[in-house]
Design brief:
Layout: H1 2-22, H2 35-38, E1 56-57, H3 59-69, H4 71-74, H5 109-119, H6 130-143, E2 153-154
Antiparallel strand pairs: 1-2
Helix pairs in contact: 3-6, 5-6
Length: 178
């Protein structure tokens, strides 16, 4: 009996597959995209300055953008509304678990800009203009005491900013894994 029911199920499956293969209708999901459609997705700004857009901004300009788009999660002064949203302060040399913030942990200012540009605000990623991303980056770095309030951040100046924890990482990107 088992062999008979298994053969029946197999026959039904073959028949269904035949119907699907021979069907004139195809399921079409989504729409084809062009290279220009992809431009907004490949926004990587690398530590050496590659991939930075035009534009620029200062912390003085960035405060207004921060207050509207960022303070709800990161607090008025970067103190955060939860452990994961604190962006100011921290100490990588603390005796207890270190508080990893922009000022204490991030090795490159370009990474801060890249993250803000692609992922913030969390409720509307990629909604900031390039100028707003530069301005907010400048403001976050200013709150951490890394740049001055009127320091202009742009494609030329941002890669040259020295972060406090720049030497806290070992670059192993040149090592190929097996």
């Amino acid at each position: 009996m088992y062999k008979k029911s298994a053969l029946s199920i197999f026959a039904v499956l073959v028949a269904l597959c035949s119907l699907v293969v021979n069907s004139q209708e195809r399921v079409r999901l989504g729409t084809p995209i062009s290279e220009s459609d992809l431009e907004g997705f490949d926004l990587v700004a690398e530590p050496d300055g590659t991939g930075f857009p035009s534009g620029g901004g200062t912390a003085r300009q960035g405060k207004a953008v921060y207050d509207i788009n960022c303070a709800v999660c990161h607090g008025a002064n970067g103190e955060g509304t939860s452990g994961n949203t604190i962006i100011v302060g921290g100490d990588m040399q603390s005796e207890g678990p270190p508080l990893r913030t922009v000022g204490s942990y991030w090795p490159y200012a370009s990474t801060v800009f890249d993250f803000i540009r692609r992922a913030m605000p969390a409720t509307a990623p990629k909604s900031l203009t390039n100028e707003q991303a530069y301005q907010v980056t400048a403001y976050v770095l200013f709150m951490n005491g890394i740049v001055g309030e009127d320091t202009e951040l742009n494609a030329n100046t941002l890669p040259n900013i020295e972060m406090p924890n720049a030497d806290g990482f070992i670059d192993r990107s040149h090592i190929l894994s097996n």
